[in-house]
Amino acid sequence: MLVGSFFASSAHAQTWMVSTTPYIKLGVLDKYNALGGFAAVFIVTNEKNGQEYLLTKQVAKGENGVDVFFPTEPSDPEYFKNMQGLAAQPTPGRYHWECRVNGKKAVGGFFMFPEVGNDITVVGGSASR
Fold first, then answer.
1. Alpha-carbon distance 74 to 56, whole Å?
2. Neighbour count for residue 67 (Cβ, 10 Å)
3. pLDDT classification of 55: cutoffs 50, 70, 90
4. Could you report how far apart the first and last alpha carbons of the chain are, in Å?
5. Cα–Cα distance, 101 to 121 (Å, whole number)
6. Are 90 and 102 in contact (CB under 8 A)?
7. Three-class DSSP category at 8
8. Which of 63, 95, 103, 124 is the 20 to 30 A CA-CA neighbour of 6?
9. Neighbours of 114 (CB within 10 A)
10. Phi, psi (5° rounding) for residue 74?
11. 12 pLDDT exceeds 80?
12. Region 46-65: what's the mean pLDDT?
């Protein structure tokens, strides 16, 4: 007697999770290392609502600059926050920024925060024998 058995294994559809978070990298550099250490105060202003966000970074003697990301994760001990202590969010729109060293504007500019969206593809499974 020939016994055959077919086992159907069910495959599950693959489900992906997705995350897109834009960041802007800002920086200041004492090109000739003339200051020997300084406090860099980054100020980012949302043009739409006038909200200001600040972040102060200490640049140690022997280092000549620092880069920061806007917005900074609020879990970071040093993050961009407004006067009420709320963390900056990646809200689409135009922003102005500047970095002050010793109370004077050293550098600055503007940037546009993009709108982001995500597509999710579900790959369907099929039964096999």
1. 14
2. 10
3. very high
4. 21
5. 48
6. no
7. coil
8. 124
9. 12
10. -65, -15
11. no
12. 94
